[in-house]
Specification:
This protein has 339 residues and is α+β, with helices and mostly antiparallel strands. It contains 9 helices and 14 strands. Helix content is 35%, strand content 24%.
Length: 339
C-alpha cells in the first residue's frame, strides 16, 4: 500500500501475522535486523487500529489506548514512550518536526505472543505517514515499520505470505511478498490458553537466544527449512509445510527454555492443544501447529477443516476462547477514527 491521506489526521488498520519460520535472535538491535530470515502469513481478523492527528507546534505527543468501553485512556509509559519514539523517527524521516495525538486499539489480546506489536506499529506507521500526507511504497514502509523496534512489523506491511528480510543491509532489511492472500486460502485457528501479557518480552528473548546451547544448531538448519516453506507456499502444499513449521516452533521454544536465563512460555494448555492437533491428524485432518513467543497455539488448516479444528480445541478445558482467522491483506487507511 501507499500511505497518503493528508489533512493532518489519518487512521490505519493493520493485521498481525503468524511466522511459519521464526526469527529468534537479533544481530543489530539499533537497526532491528535479525540473525535469520523469517516467513509469515499475514492475518485477516486480528487487527490493530491507530489514529494519528497533528498537534500545534510545541505540544508533546499524546498517546492513548481505546478501552473496551470505547473510552480513551492514557497509555502506560512503556508503550507511550515507544510510540513517541516512532512518531519522532517518522517525522524526522519526513523532514518535519511535529507532535501528534495518537490513539490505538487492538481487537485481540495484547502482548500475549500474537504479534500485536507487529500490527500495532504497522498501523501506527501508516497512520502517522498518512497524517503527514506522505506517499510511501511498501518496501520503504516495511523498513520504516521495522525501525519501530518490532521486526515483525516489516512483514505486516504486506498481505499474504511474506519473507523478511530481503537482504543483509539496512536498506535491504524489508519484507517481500512471496504470494498474495488470494493465492492460498489457509485458516489459522488460534487457541487462546492465556490472554494476559507475557512476563518476558520477545525483545528480551532475542537478547538471550544466543546463550542457548541449541541456538547455533537451529541456525544451521534454518536455510533448508526456509527453502521448504518457500516451495510449500508456491505449491500450496500443506502436507509439506506443516511438519516444518511445527518443528521450527518447537525448536524456538527449546532455545528459549535453554537460554541463560531460561524462558518458559508454554503452559499446560499449550500441551493440551498440541495433543489435540496430533489426535486430529490421526483422524485424517490436515492441521499443524505453530507457536510464537507466548503460550497460545496457532492451528494452520484448510478452510474445509476449520470447523472441526475449532470445535475440537474449544472443548478443551484449558482453552479460554478461540479466534478463527485466515490469510489476509495489507494495511489500509480509512476514516473510522478513534477520536
Amino acid at each position: 500500500m501507499k500511505a497518503k491521506s493528508g489533512g493532518g489526521k489519518a487512521s490505519a488498520v493493520a493485521a498481525a501475522n503468524i511466522a511459519f519460520i521464526k526469527y529468534w535472535g537479533i544481530r543489530d538491535e539499533r537497526l532491528v535486523l535479525p540473525v535469520n530470515p523469517s516467513i509469515s502469513m499475514t492475518l485477516r481478523s486480528c487487527l490493530s487500529r491507530c489514529t494519528a492527528e497533528l498537534l500545534d507546534d510545541g505540544a508533546e505527543t499524546q498517546v492513548f489506548l481505546r478501552t473496551e468501553s470505547g473510552e480513551l485512556a492514557p497509555a502506560p509509559d512503556g508503550f507511550a514512550n515507544g510510540v513517541r519514539e516512532q512518531v519522532e523517527r517518522l517525522c524526522e524521516w519526513a523532514g518535519e518536526s511535529r507532535s501528534m495525538r495518537i490513539a490505538a486499539h487492538n481487537n485481540f489480546p495484547t502482548g500475549a505472543g500474537l504479534a500485536s506489536s507487529a500490527s500495532g506499529f504497522t498501523a501506527l506507521t501508516v497512520a502517522v505517514l498518512g497524517a503527514l500526507g506522505r506517499e510511501v511504497d511498501p518496501t520503504e514502509m516495511s523498513v520504516l515499520a521495522r525501525r519501530s523496534g518490532s521486526g515483525s512489523a516489516a512483514r505486516s506491511v504486506f498481505g499474504g505470505y511474506v519473507e523478511w528480510p530481503a537482504g543483509e543491509s539496512e536498506d535491504a532489511g524489508h519484507g517481500v511478498q512471496l504470494a498474495p492472500p488470494e493465492y492460498w486460502d489457509l485458516c489459522n485457528v488460534v487457541a487462546i490458553v492465556d490472554p494476559r501479557p507475557k512476563s518476558v518480552s520477545s525483545r528480551e528473548g532475542h537478547r538471550l537466544a544466543p546463550s542457548s546451547p541449541y541456538y547455533q544448531r537451529r541456525q544451521e538448519e534454518l536455510p533448508g527449512r526456509l527453502e521448504i516453506v518457500r516451495r510449500a507456499i508456491a505449491a500450496r502444499d500443506l502436507e509439506l509445510l506443516g511438519p516444518v513449521i511445527e518443528k521450527d516452533a518447537v525448536e524456538l521454544h527449546l532455545v528459549a527454555m535453554s537460554s541463560r536465563r531460561p524462558i518458559f512460555y508454554w503452559q499446560a494448555g499449550t500441551l493440551a492443544v498440541l495433543e489435540a492437533a496430533r489426535q486430529l491428524r490421526s483422524q485424517g485432518v490436515q492441521v499443524y501447529c505453530t507457536i510464537d513467543a507466548g503460550p497460545n497455539v496457532h492451528l494452520i488448516c484448510r478452510p474445509e477443516d476449520e470447523e472441526a479444528v475449532a470445535e475440537t480445541v474449544e472443548r478443551l478445558a484449558q482453552v479460554e476462547f478461540v479466534i478463527r482467522d485466515r490469510v489476509g491483506g495489507p494495511p489500509t487507511l480509512d476514516d473510522r477514527h478513534l477520536f
